[in-house]
Design goal:
The structure is a homodimer. By secondary structure, chain A is of the alpha/beta class. Chain A contains 14 helices and twelve strands.
Chain lengths: 394, 394
């Protein structure tokens, strides 16, 4: 009775649902505190202290909850554009910024604006697999391209994958699930390839940069500016991760003012933000985040979690590349079987996501945005599993 | 460079954009206080007093802003389901309720779930024309059916419009723009027709009831329960109008527990709410509205505005049906030319929306959710225009 496509999607996404069901069952059986849930990127950390203060202040103002221009409050976009200009090495104004319902809202809005039915959108492996749905929503197809063994982009492979139906390339750096930050040189090479390929196929290939983890970086690494490297770029992001407010659905997108077909692009995006039913980004949250430009939760706390986990996991014999950003470890599945390690860890009441959830089955993802007690509590289980798999001597 | 379809949409929706541009220009030229803007359903009234109090209280709690199940917090859905059960004459549980990003989010989620490419969705004229985009977003086509002269549904015409490609009928009562509430008997007849036609075409025709104005009703009229009348029904709504918080994007949908294919329908809807990029309804707003079930702004204030306008407009010779709900008057365009009256009123610095914006060109819409001073200030202009048009003797 419902759409045939949605029926199929429900079937194919049932392994993730099964995972959650198993998790819920485990929590019911053993108590929530005895299940070590690393499956979701849902920060346990509270937002920065002044977040609540500003929120309360703003909520007392009159006419705080009404409609505003679909692109968002002008003064909020002004503040966001100043912040963007300060760290993207590209001057943007409020006209180039659209406030959105999180990065998910931003990406859907952009994709609807640029996709002609049958187009493809290229994304590197591993990646956040909701992209597949987001492209399909608007008649496009996500085309996955294998990355380098160190999770860097394979620019040559991306170039080869581009054809006359390619509308855009999506990148996500720092990357979910690998924690990889693509280096400056890689971004420059990607830009060169996109310029060359755009000319070759006679069509603008947009670069969509999904940057919700940009502020969650370690070792003073700076995420290279996509806007500076490539003029046909659109940056999408949210405050979900850096302010620990993923349930509030607040983010923005910005169109490079140097983009070809700029006026149609930005006006199309504003139209699509409305007609997709988002209408506008939540009002009070817009007002609140306007005062928090450049602010984030205390990243040193994530750093401690990362370092603790890195030491422990390595000592148990697990193999991984140290994440440069995000709050994810993407660990090799011993023997290459991601479902097997996920199942073994489940026996220890540890929940992780198999790599196939990110188009790379040889790995599993640990989301370490959880309480220290969860991380510490899970170590025995990780160790026991390592022994079972022969990574560690009994 | 952008999608051809979006380019066309921008062209065709340019008359509305032009209207807003003219409005902005007028406000700049004459001062905001000298322009009488009745164009938007954006309530000037503040939310009920305890709204802000509850919002502030809730914002102090820990873990208030994280992800929750995509369908919304269980305890919020519990409270909403109790409220629905109390006024839809149908017992629903939290399992039947999905919290959404406003009614726009709810409608898109439902439409994506049920539409197979090429399907049609029937809506009566006049109606909120965003429906057209919402259907098109998911490969469906909005099929408009003429209503009765008193803005009631023409059940026979709806029956005739249904064919094998019909996935659903959308109704909106109290109706934007007409303020009409479809009577109990009409809803019963619609249900009978949908049952008969579903059998005839061998496919479930869903009834989608868009009810954001349900609490903004006058003269103790009760909006008939759609769920009680027809089991294959889905109710969508938001708190935008009754709590005066349209910018916050908070609403819900509920699937009739007696609907055919119930499990696929509700699970498909929860999936679509996620993959459309809404992910979930804004967290803090969920917590807040949970405590405000059955509460609304003071409708007697709208009632006063309605009665004042009704008396004045009638005395100037304008013809209209008294709205039973909503905060809209849908007034006959003298001579049938909606663009002419819109232009004449603009000369008096009065902004209204032509009926063609609701698929009924012989009318114009006045949104009276504005300050009394705006209504009073516009009366001279309405009178002068009436004289120009010969409705009133000089």
């Amino acid at each position: 009775m419902i759409s045939k496509k949605i029926l199929t999607m429900m079937d194919s996404s049932s392994f993730i649902r099964k995972m959650f069901e198993t998790g819920a069952k485990l929590k019911k059986e053993f108590g929530k505190e005895n299940v070590y849930d690393f499956s979701l990127g849902n920060p346990a950390m509270d937002p920065p202290e002044n977040f609540t203060q500003i929120l309360i202040e703003k909520s007392k103002d009159h006419h705080m909850h009404g409609y505003m221009p679909n692109a968002g409050y002008l003064d909020v976009r002004e503040k966001v554009s100043e912040y963007i200009s300060s760290n993207q090495k590209t001057k943007v104004t409020l006209e180039d910024v659209v406030m959105t319902s999180g990065a998910g809202g931003a990406l859907n809005t952009v994709l609807k604006t640029i996709i002609n039915s049958g187009d493809n959108i290229i994304a590197p492996i591993p990646c956040f697999m909701e992209y597949k749905f987001y492209c399909d929503n608007h008649g496009g197809e996500l085309k996955l391209v294998t990355g380098k063994p160190d999770f860097n982009l394979d620019i040559e492979a991306i170039g080869k994958a581009i054809n006359s139906k390619t509308a855009a390339v999506i990148i996500n750096s720092p990357n979910n699930p690998s924690g990889r930050i693509y280096p400056e040189e890689t971004i420059q090479n990607l830009a060169l390839t996109l310029k060359r390929k755009s000319q070759e196929i006679g069509r603008t290939i947009y670069l969509i940069s999904d940057e919700p983890y940009k502020k969650i970086v370690y070792d003073n690494i700076v995420v290279p500016s996509v806007m500076d490297a490539y003029k046909n770029s659109i940056v999408c992001t949210s405050y979900s991760k850096d302010l620990s407010i993923p349930g509030e659905r607040i983010g923005w997108l910005t169109v490079n003012p140097g983009a070809e077909d700029y006026a149609n692009l930005i006006n199309g995006i504003i139209l699509c933000n409305r007609i997709l039913g988002y209408v506008n980004a939540p009002a009070l949250m817009q007002r609140t985040i306007a005062e928090l430009q450049g602010i984030s939760v205390d990243v040193s706390l994530y750093r401690k979690k990362r370092d603790y986990l890195a030491e422990k996991l390595a000592s148990f014999g697990y193999k991984f590349r140290l994440p440069e950003g995000t709050f994810y470890f993407f660990v090799e599945a011993p023997g290459g079987d991601d479902m097997k390690i996920v199942d073994l860890l489940k026996e220890e009441r540890i929940l992780v996501v198999p790599g196939r959830g990110f188009a790379l089955p040889g790995y599993f993802r640990i989301a370490y945005c959880v309480e220290d007690s969860v991380i510490e509590g899970a170590m025995t289980g990780f160790e026991k599993t390592a022994k079972k798999l022969g990574l560690l001597q009994e």
